[in-house]
Specification:
The structure is a single chain. With 146 residues, the protein is α+β, with helices and mostly antiparallel strands. It has one domain: Hotdog Thioesterase (Thiol Ester Dehydrase, Chain A), CATH 3.10.129.10. 27% of the residues lie in helices and 38% in strands. It is built from 3 helices and 6 strands, in the order H-H-E-E-H-E-E-E-E. It has a 6-stranded antiparallel beta sheet. The longest helix is centred in the N-terminal third of the chain and has 17 residues. The model has no long low-confidence stretch (mean pLDDT 94).
Length: 146
């Protein structure tokens, strides 16, 4: 892997972590980033549970979307979601450590396609997410304060 591309992915991810209050408040943590991909984690807390005592689908979407955001911005061009779809496959419960891994599938001009798998310990798949991105070079990347 090209060291410059990896450094760009890490620099952009650090700035995103610094500025993403919503993800931080939800307990989403960046675990790894590389050009075209990322891995994030979240420990399920009471605030993530719905009325059935399982993780609310909105938090599963949020977790997958966070991995997607790191992946599609990892090349250094400001990129936003053009859309996303999620399939919920099994419940996650209080105390589960969720892991979401995003992978770039295709880039065409300013558009991209990414797949994200959300798993629990043992590798069981909780959800599958497909995100569509759009590069928006008129937005600036957040600058890291360090």
């Amino acid at each position: 892997m090209d060291d410059d591309l990896q450094r760009t992915a890490e620099r952009v991810a650090a700035a995103m972590v610094e500025h993403d209050v919503a993800a931080r408040d939800a307990g989403i943590r960046l675990l790894d980033v590389w050009p075209g991909g990322a891995r994030v984690g979240m420990t399920v807390a009471e605030r993530h549970l719905n009325g059935h005592g399982i993780v609310h689908g909105g938090y599963l979407f949020f977790l997958a979307d966070a991995a997607f955001a790191f992946a599609c911005n990892s090349r250094g061009t400001s990129t936003v979601a053009a859309g996303g779809d999620v399939s919920f496959l099994r419940p996650a419960r209080l105390g589960d450590e969720l892991l979401a891994e995003a992978s770039e599938r295709a880039l065409a001009g300013r558009s991209g396609l990414y797949d994200v798998t959300v798993r629990i310990p043992g590798g069981e798949v909780v959800a599958e997410f497909r995100g569509r991105s759009r590069a928006v070079p008129y937005l600036s990347q957040p600058e890291s304060g360090g």
